[in-house]
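hey so i finally got around to running both of the ones u sent me last week. sorry it took forever, my laptop kept dying halfway thru and i had to restart like 3 times lol. anyway pasting them below in the order u listed, first the sequence line then the structure token line for each. didnt double check formatting much so if smth looks off just lmk and ill redo it

first one:
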Amino acid sequence: MVVTRWYGGIKLGAGGLVRAYGGAAAECLRTAERREVVEMAEVEVECPFADIAAVHGALPAFGAEKLGEDFGTDGVRFTLRLPAARLPALAVHLRDATRDRARVGEP
């Protein structure tokens, strides 16, 4: 919705302008699509090669998206994005699933 002021005069007056713009803003808010805002967190998970499958298997259950994957001589480092509220549960799950070999930390 667009409110355009074609005339530069004061025929509406200050109150009329406030009602026109306020009404347009209210209509936009009333008809706009509503979406839940979810705080996201980015983390790095480091693990040995033997635990790659455990990390990959956990991602869907915690709503995690893999942003990157870097292989080194000792293992792999994943960069993940997931809902911040699910981060503690993911860390516990990976600790248990990898016998405390996977490390979750800040990127």
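and the second one:
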Amino acid sequence: MTSSTWNCEIGGPLIGVGIDAESVARFVALLPDRPVLPLVFSGSESAHCDRLPDASRGYCAAFCAKEAFFKATRVAMDPRDCRLLWEPGRPIHELELAPDLAAETGAVRAMARVSWVGQECVVEVCVIGRGG
């Protein structure tokens, strides 16, 4: 894996950066029975992942984004309040945050960079606050 840097104008103070990694195999195993998916993924997030050519990759990326957001903000949250609608081939995504979560964390924007190394997903999240 090669390193890279964020090249963007963030437009506000940096609240935090978080990173998470998971194997897609963990999500392949969850999909047939789907017992815990509604506890972690919103309905719109699940519908989006289910439409992807490889749903397990979508769920894996979304889960990593939730974990990385939590690590960046250290605020306890309902995981369904932080959503990543991952699209294959797009390296940077905006996270969708529920209004209450955005207010509690002070986040104005949260960006996720998604990378794949074989069957391993790595997501870095950068959380931006209100400009001063």
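quick thing i noticed on the 2nd:
The chain is about 35% helix and 30% strand.
anyway thats it, ttyl
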